[in-house]
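Extended Data, record Spermidine/putrescine transport system substrate-binding protein
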Amino acid sequence: MTGTKSKISRRSVLKGAAALGGAAAGSGVITGFPTIWAQNIKDIVLRSTSTGTASANAIAAKAKEDLGITIQMTALDTDSVNNRIVTQPNSYELADIEYFSCKKIFPTGVLQPIDVNRVKSYDDIVSIFKDGKLTPDSKLAQGTAPHTVSYVTGQDSTEFAPSPTEWMTLIPTTYNADTLGIRPDLVGRPITNWSDIMDPAFKGRTAIVNIPSIGIMDAAMILESQGAITYGDKGNMTKEEIDKTAAFLIEAKRAGQFRALWKSFDESVNLMSSGEVVIQSMWSPAVAAVRSKGIPCVFQPLQEGYRAWGGGFGIASHLSGIELDAAYEYINWYLSGWVGAYLNREGYYSANMTSAKKFMTEDEWGFWVEGKPAQGDIVSPEGVKMEGPGAVRDGGSFEERMGNIACWNSVMDEDRHMVSKWNEFVAA
């Protein structure tokens, strides 16, 4: 079955299924396919390589239940994911990577452009991934904004397109606006700026993320907050700016400002839960994980704004035939609502907020997305109580958070030089 033939047959089948009422409303499950196709797709195994943000076992289990497709997830840190995608292209079918990684990965040809005509809810994908703006009045942020690497010029192209085409590099899955996490019971004062992490009062009780392309951005936010450097583009520093940033980090490390440099979600949670660290780079779900233990922790809004990131599914170049069909089915299911609601409850944001809303209660949507006080208990996807009545999400609404992005995670033109200087910092 060629990609073209499967595309035509799939569309004709969907048309017929819709006419017969074969699609289960709101379920995200597509039915009405020929019996042979339906039986065969249940035998499909798709290997997904991703960072921890997208590798929840519950998602794989639900996909198996709804589609019959087996999703085998391998979770690695960001750098290891990027390395595996490029050097072991036959070890996966789906690559869930961050958008800034596209600059490194997509030109190598290991991923195939994605036909937006096969993505059922393409029109409902959040506009940040299409034109870079949450609203028509939004300002474009610095760094590798997803829309700058979202599209390629054609079906067989590895050249990024300056505006939307019918061929995407990735189908967005999760994204967020990141800031500093704090222990309000231990910091002893209000935290309002990125530069607060360098307060001598917190010496030996701070931490930053040890992923070069991300950590360097946090450092830039700190230095601009201090007024020490004004970057032309924090997401694409000059060599001189990189050198100054690295020198600052090395000096701070040698002075004992940092308790740790963390690489994984769990490390950040453990550092904050134990009280070893009271202020650090942190991801929203990690803050939620600390709070679920009954420990005070805040994802702190800051005057300078947020550092944002986004991730999405890429499809391996070697995929074809019914396996390629299965990959598109999984992507369509992923955007159909259940996963989106799951991700929203984790503290991330769904790429299709319209469908996610259908799988959330009014109170959940109000708390997680609209910034409204909770009316009842707010629970995690696993059912663990996270907040009680009256609680308001840190940073407020979706629009307040994603509309206040200072910079996106990025790959710089001087990436090799940056990584080299970052490694000097880690070794100092």
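Summary. The two ends are 56 Å apart (CA to CA).
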